[in-house]
Amino acid sequence: MAPSRISPEVSNDTVVQGLSSEQLDSWNKNGYLLIPDELNLDTVSTLLQETRQLLNDFPIDEHPMTKFSTGTGEDKHIGDDYFLTSGDKVRFFFEEDAFASDGSLTKPKHLAINKIGHSLHTLLPSFRKISLSSRNAAIARSLRYQDPRVLQSMVICKQPEIGGAVPPHQDSTFLYTDPPSAVGFWYALEDATIKNGCLSFADGSHKSSEVENRFVTLEKGGTGFQEVRGARYPHGEGQDVGAPAEETQDDYTNGEVKAGTLVLIHGNLMHKSEKNLSGKSRFIYTFHMIEGRNDYDERNWLQPTRDGFSRLYV
Fold this sequence. Notes:
By secondary structure, this protein is an alpha+beta fold. It is 16% helix and 23% strand. It has helices at 21-30, 41-57, 81-84, 120-123, 125-131, 134-142; strands spanning 32-35, 67-68, 90-95, 113-118, 148-156, 166-169, 183-188, 199-202, 213-217, 223-227, 252-255, 262-266, 271-273, 284-291, 310-311.
């Protein structure tokens, strides 16, 4: 079923420009795009302040202490109810390395959270404002989306010393539409460097890397990965015989960026980040966009509410 149910029209922003021809050329070539200064410093400061308030204020006494794993094995991704019912809520997921062998936290709670998700763009006004904006609608038009929908918004903390590594992956694996259509909007709220675990990208891999597997809810309960039976490239795209061969460890380009930068990420692009071993956090805010006219079925872990996923076009 396509997520065609109508969400409230939320953006009354002034119409702004989308991507330039040079930016589109870079996007089409590399599968990602770095846009510096997309958020001004006052906005970044507000989002950081609200994030830190959330981390300080959330109650831990009744928390199920759910950890977020970035592994790729079937038993490495979480699938408890706290996670699976978080698509329209603001919930807190712990770093795997924030716990001692006896299950107790080794860090204060505000330094132990991996991410906050997964509906900040509907429930928190400051995050909603930068997500469901006319600027992002203009970007979606530049990318030729007909009915862009926003989902899975979250702050990823990448905590000092324990912020987990994220192995190479494709965003369309986790939010599969047929054909694939996911695009990540990734905003740096702090400077992202090699030391604190910035993103890195396999340039051009969106042209040669099929979406082979998808992250789904399993009939037996929990979550896992299944082979994709539908399209493996976005509409109008496919295997590029001139694209790079299978990527290696050395083929990744580091994406060091300053706070306020927006990174756009193609759903087929292979990308990753290393563990944060530094003493500085790497807070970012991210959400994903899909094409609302494409099939988004009930096997996806994140399901729309009765009103559907948030519309980006007004």
